[in-house]
Amino acid sequence: MSQPEQVPARPTIKSVARHAQVSYQTVSNALNAPERLRPDTLTRVLRSVEELGYRPTQAARNLRLQTTRLIGFRSTRSDGQGVSSIESRFLYALTSAARDRGYGVILFAADGDEDEIAMFEDLVSRGAVDGFVLSGSHRHDPRTAWLAEREVPFVSFGRPWEKTSFDYSWLDVDGHAGTVAATEHLAANGHRRIGFIGWPEGSEVGDDRYAGYLAAAADLGLPTRGLTVRGLDGIGAGTQLAAGLLGKAHPPTAFVCVSDAMAVGAMHAIEHRGLAVGRDVAVIGFDDSPLATVVQPAMSSVRQPLESIARRCVDLLLDRIDDPRSAVLTSVVEPTVIARGSSNPTQPSPPDGA
Amino acid sequence: MSQPEQVPARPTIKSVARHAQVSYQTVSNALNAPERLRPDTLTRVLRSVEELGYRPTQAARNLRLQTTRLIGFRSTRSDGQGVSSIESRFLYALTSAARDRGYGVILFAADGDEDEIAMFEDLVSRGAVDGFVLSGSHRHDPRTAWLAEREVPFVSFGRPWEKTSFDYSWLDVDGHAGTVAATEHLAANGHRRIGFIGWPEGSEVGDDRYAGYLAAAADLGLPTRGLTVRGLDGIGAGTQLAAGLLGKAHPPTAFVCVSDAMAVGAMHAIEHRGLAVGRDVAVIGFDDSPLATVVQPAMSSVRQPLESIARRCVDLLLDRIDDPRSAVLTSVVEPTVIARGSSNPTQPSPPDGA
DNA sequence: GTGTTTCATATGAACGTTCAAATGGATAGA
DNA sequence: TCTATCCATTTGAACGTTCATATGAAACAC
């Protein structure tokens, strides 16, 4: 009654061979070593490939080549924690970059380090991935040791925060340079009293960004005494911390903030005092999350070049996959200031006044 | 000089067989059809499996079984658009759900529909995935037709917004029911004049949510005239729209908002008038994005049950993969109100007053 | 015209599985 | 004791590739 085959079966290398009147190994050569074929047979085979829409079956290549062309990456439960959204952007960039090199990204869900290692174990033992891109490095991170010990290729987006007995490739954003650039940006717009709203001491990333602010201020001869406050991340916290500074005798005229959420909070505090964000008091956030463009005026922020980081992560990882003895490379890339209304003295003018 | 092999090669079914003194096919049987083995050989084989840490190589299974146990999902460039972050949560849930059924999620980057279809083409022709989970359905969506035509298994998270000549399985969140619940929640807390802050007419999702508000208000006998405003998404827009309503002669005492960004904006407007969010004017957002918990007071929101949606997406997709003739199922799931400070008359009390 | 080289193409084998079918030893029935 | 039945295990084959090697025809030198 019903047709047995509506959709034609996917062509194999043999059906192409039959179509082109050659042996199937010749088709393989046409694709993998075209210089071996006589030009006329090459075009004939290639036309058959085209005509039948043939693409080598992934599973068969994988088996033969002992590779998967797949990169593992952890999907985090970002449940309510922060408005990072950095992950989403990085993931897109990573996937694009991998694809450009002929690789795919396979995602796995993991809750903590142990959970993630269990996933490593699973994927590696099944030979389901060629390597991993790690993110969210932190102190006492057991993941790198586990992978290094088993000689599983990996690259970390996020520097090691402590000495390890082994080396591995990593990339990171220079948070220090980011707050330096942010502070310089505000100073270039004429601000002398620049405040800092940060996270409590103890977080690797937060301390790094704080240090950058301090260094830039010292370099520029700007005061920092009584101009820095720190607290847990959040819009509400940012409002309170900024309000505290604004209520002082000599309030800052600009804020460098450790995160976009803090910066949005600072913007509220400024508006709450009847001041205009950008004109009266400048604000700059960090991460350039979607938050930055959803507020009014749009918020300046320090943007991590996730696209190029992702690309370099893939490059480094593939180097290691191709040759496990390849050199270990590490690099710190500088984020850039994205200037928007929240740090412009006047809305329409460009942000490069002296 | 250097050791030839630091890490032992991954065990294959044959090395297990040698270790357990059986043929390698018996090892396969032990794993896939244990009832065929005599109990003592079964335990012996299983112990060898355990001891060597053997796991069947994915590529070999894939080739033999003509399957990949991989689900394709598009990674979107959420660049600066909105604070959705829904995607991130869904992705985690999808990955978990897939894994529980023995599947992995492979990500691909695509910018628009055509780009995504090109990725379908690529992945399908290489036999790299067993099926797809779609998201972000919209009017004139060419993706479903493409997949349906080629009989590629797929499920859509997001209903079809127009009639199609073919059927497919989909799941969606009932935005209508969400705003109904939000409105009822506010009414239950004693509010009679409930405003609505929405998106401009024309967006499928926005109109659906607006209709829910209207229906609930009508049902409860509440006024809506002069209480609804609409504008493009954003915190700033929310502030302006809410300020407009609050400035009226008979302002609303509560806001149902089409998104969390709008709701955060409304909270600002309320505070700006010197009123207390929650006590004086209640606010409820939609999506329960990270934004909701990053503000002060924490914001009530309508939460999409992404975890169960992801699970059901996987279930439906695997049904179709297992049997392409399996029934087409569609279902609309109801989101739930997450009550927090922004809609509580008094901070510490539970949100169930009359 | 025979022997050697060269190049294009074909043959054989392997990657690690799973499934269908064959084998062989034990048990039961005559 | 011989054949039939059963069950545990083994044998054979296949999934679709790619790589190493063998073949054979044409081209060249002698």
Question: How would you describe this protein?
Answer:
2 copies of one chain form a homodimer. Chain A has 354 residues and is α/β, with parallel strands linked by helices. Chain A has 2 domains: 70-173 and 306-335, Response regulator (Rossmann fold, 3-Layer(aba) Sandwich); 175-304 and 338-343, Response regulator (Rossmann fold, 3-Layer(aba) Sandwich), CATH 3.40.50.2300. The first copy, chain A, is 43% helix and 15% strand. Chain A contains 13 helices and 12 strands. Chain A has helices spanning 13-20, 24-32, 39-52, 58-65, 86-100, 113-125, 142-149, 175-188, 204-220, 235-246, 260-272, 291-294, 306-322, and strands spanning 70-75, 104-109, 131-135, 154-157, 170-173, 194-198, 228-230, 254-257, 282-286, 300-303, 330-333, 336-338. In chain A, strands 2-1-3-4-5-11 form a 6-stranded parallel sheet, sandwiched between helices. The termini of chain A are far apart. At the A-B interface, helix 4, strand 1, helix 5, strand 2 and helix 10 of A face helix 4, strand 1, helix 5, strand 2 and helix 10 of B. Strand 2 of chain A pairs antiparallel with strand 2 (104-109) of chain B. Chain B binds a DNA duplex (30 and 30 nucleotides) through helix 2 and helix 4.
